[in-house]
Automatic annotation (TrEMBL):
<dbReference type="InterPro" id="IPR008634">
    <property type="entry name" value="Gas-vesicle_GvpO"/>
</dbReference>
<protein>
    <submittedName>
        <fullName>Gas vesicle synthesis protein GvpO</fullName>
    </submittedName>
</protein>
<dbReference type="GO" id="GO:0031412">
    <property type="term" value="P:gas vesicle organization"/>
</dbReference>
<dbReference type="Pfam" id="PF05800">
    <property type="entry name" value="GvpO"/>
</dbReference>
Length: 96
């Protein structure tokens, strides 16, 4: 999680890799699900917008696990401001 010491007082953004680690950790805590990765990220006026893939229902074999993609908005320090599930799918499903 972001601490006061980690925050940038000058208004500068945290490095992208660090922000994504923060986002993944916060989403895992909020949703109580295993993070699978970040599929997209972009800078916004307020900070960052990311699409985070989460394992919502682990199954065996793992290709049948239920996954979800969440759109996550953060401030420039990587603190999650809001999120929305935008898609659910089986891990083995391929987009066409």
């Amino acid at each position: 999680m972001t601490t006061k010491e980690d925050s940038t007082d000058s208004g500068e953004r945290m490095p992208l890799a660090r922000v994504m680690r923060e986002v993944i950790g916060q989403m895992a805590e909020l949703l109580q699900c295993e993070p699978a990765g970040v599929s997209a990220v972009e800078a916004t006026d307020r900070g960052w917008r990311a699409h985070v893939e989460m394992v919502e229902l682990p199954r065996v074999p793992d290709t049948t696990s239920v996954m979800a993609s969440y759109r996550v908005d953060t401030n420039s320090n990587g603190e999650v401001l809001g999120y929305e599930r935008v898609r659910r799918y089986s891990r083995g499903q391929v987009d066409r």
